[in-house]
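Appendix B, record 7
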Amino acid sequence: MGDTHDHLPNIRRVVGRMNAEQVDLVLHTGDYIAPFVIPVLAGLEAGMVGVFGNNDGDRELLTVRCAEHPSLEIRGTFTEIDRDGRHIALLHGHDKGLLAATVQGGEYDLVVHGHTHRGQVEKKERTLVVNPGEVCGYLTGTPTCALYDTETGAAVLVNL
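Structure tokens (predicted):
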């Protein structure tokens, strides 16, 4: 998920959807915006690893609020995750050079990014690139997230 932009009703919807899908781990591409969203994200039954986006104001307080919930973590602006044999990169995507280098480097099985608010799943050589779109729905009018299966390596966009 990503680009939640303080939209609490849709954040509750995506938390409910992730819980219903019984996901093992939630990745957040950033742009939480305000720390008051963290207690809502704490409703996730799975752990969450996230990164900061370009609109996250009080990063220190976001980090402090996450620390109040052991299952939530924000790891700066870029992180790598190894899960079920898949090497995953997570970033917001506003640094276009970093995003391009991460995708084109061929090091990752999956690159997850946000920023554009437009959901997309595409294969770039050996790397699957997923933008889960926007939970907030502000720009497109359609709140979305994505689900990724580490066994099959497939991803799908989900309308909320």
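Remarks on this record: The beta strands are 25-28, 47-50, 72-74, 78-83, 86-91, 110-112, 120-124, 127-131, 144-149, 154-159. The CA atoms of residues 21 and 76 lie 27 Å apart.
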